[in-house]
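User: Show me an example of a complex going from sequences to structure tokens.

Assistant: Sure. Here are the input components:
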Amino acid sequence: MKTAIKIIIHDALENARQAGELELSPFPEIVVEKPKDEKMGDFSTNVAMTLARSERKNPKVIAESVARYLKNGSNDLSQVEIAGPGFINLKMSNEFFLQRLRSAVKQGDDFGQTDVGQGTKVMIEFVSANPTGPLHVGHGRGAAVGDALGRILKKAGYDLSTEYYINDVGNQMNFLGRSTWLRYRELLGEVIEFPADHYRGEYIKDIANEIIEQKRDEFLNLPEEECIPFFRKYATDNILQGIQKDLAEFRVTFDNWFSEQSLYDDNSVEKAIEWLKGKGHIYEKDGAVWLKSSAFNDDKDRVLVKKTGEKTYFCSDIAYHQNKINRGFKKIINLMGADHHGYVPRMEAVLQAMGYDNKIFKILLIQFVSLLRAGEKISMSTRAGEFETLRDVVSEVGVDVARYYFLMRSSDTHLDFDLELAKQETSENPVFYIQYAHARICSIFRTAEEKGVVWDRSNEVDLSLLVEEEEFGIIRAVLAFPEIVEKSARALEVHRISHYLLDMVSRFHGYYSRHRVISDDKALTLARLFLLDAIRITIRNGFELMGISSPEKM
RNA sequence: GCGCCCAUGGCUCAGCUGGAUAGAGCGACGGUUUGCGGAACCGUAGGUCGCAGGUUCGAGUCCUGCUGGGCGCACCA
């Protein structure tokens, strides 16, 4: 919509130049925005103010000149006004909006789709929790945000792939195997002193029990070295399946699950090290192999190969990101918990060292979630085994509510998630407020049908009967949807969608309480139903981006 | 000590690439329906945008310093 306005302004400026009223060197960037107060107009531009310097004229004089050419230039404009220090406020004709409303409804499920992404290949990696235990609430926030971002980027025309990186290598995996093995022996009657640094969660016992059911006491008298590989693999697979299941129930799926181990299997890690060595970015010290990351804005150098010969997590991550780039992604987005923020400069240093433009790489830090129950904090720690799992939270409040809570706030602020509040099906809970609007609209359509109103989305409706100021407020809000999607995609901010929906829906509720939709006036009824249909489509498409359902009844 | 994030009405938060009188929701107080879903609507009270400078025609928004809170600073992942 704003693009259309920009063209109109551009033409007016061009005409002013040809008439010799403006110099326009250089030609200004045209910024169109919405005035805060709708009464001031539908759109405004500050070109006159930005031009003041280069034209050496008072902004008001410039504005008057531009306004004159605007008025003569387009019949989509119903009013052009100059306000304040030189803002040019534009009011559009009703027909301008109604035309666009028609095409929005025609688009249906596709309404909101744009091509700002121009098919750019984007990869977004998220969750990537170690398969050493079930997902907790913090992972849930990452999952919801990553998934929703993916949906938004697709809607904005990007060619998107999602990926989960499985850290199936390293010491933690041995700890996991050993923890399971110890519980196995314990359950078979041995007295075990369970080490504090092992995984103590109940889920380990569940896995051990499963193994007992299948293998009986087969492993009981075997030496540790012969047992661990089996326990390690069994526990990992089991936990990973659990994670996949939890995510699927949370409506989060991935295009690809990428195994860290596979980077070792095909020698990618070795090759990455060799490559960096060839570039002179690597040295040996104290028996370990280091990357000179400090040469690229990291605070210190980092170890790639420990003196034990093992490679660090960071080392395989280098190979992984090289792999991503080689797959042709032009934009690589990683979601991480905010506690990993120290990792950012390190990773950017590597990409620079490898000669890539580090702008293609973007790490989004997701701040912590504090889980509360009636104001009381619940603590989380995987090792200690006392945490609220995503599964528990979802089964308590439901997928819609959980996703909404994770997505309603900017992800760079801490989130307080109060289970008691989330459960309440009252006005405290914005997700129900929005869903209620959708259900209410559906109910109105049901009533209309009962009353014999014949309605079909494809029918021609006389929209000129929509004349109320409130109706146009709603129409403007509906038509802003594609821009909201576009901005969310550009800024990688999901919460804008939820704030937008809330605003639009409250306009609807207000409108509904003051105006009858279904009346004896058949033509007006149809026009208003058309508007409600547009709102319904927008709610549905907006919630679809958030992965939240739009029920027809509640 | 170094680094990242945050700071906006009693509470939880918006505020779009700086723009015109700072907005919601909850809570408080008061009101609204013999009609389409009251899980709704309308109104009132409540803010020196943490503090101090700076840039700008213009700063909640950008820069610097400070204060307060969260999180990091491994040959863990």
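The lines above are the inputs; the final block is the predicted structure for all two components together. Residues 137 and 257 of chain A are 21 Å apart (CA to CA).
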